[in-house]
Specification:
Layout lengths: L18 H14 L7 H7 L4 H5 L2
């Protein structure tokens, strides 16, 4: 069997800080439907806990 070369990396939150972009996208949708928005720090604390936590009230 031929050996395959593989590279694994954790991009989100390790190599790239995506919290500001997630916050902008989240707040755009929440404002559109009249829901409260979240700060970048709120988003950072919720990333990795699933979409339900991110959009929960």
């Amino acid at each position: 069997m031929k050996q395959k070369f593989t590279i694994l990396f954790d991009l989100d939150g390790t190599l790239v800080d995506t919290a500001p972009d997630l916050m902008l996208a989240h707040n755009h949708v929440m404002k559109k439907f009249g829901y409260p928005t979240k700060s970048t720090e709120d988003i950072r604390n919720l990333v990795g806990k699933g979409a339900g936590a991110l959009i929960g009230r």
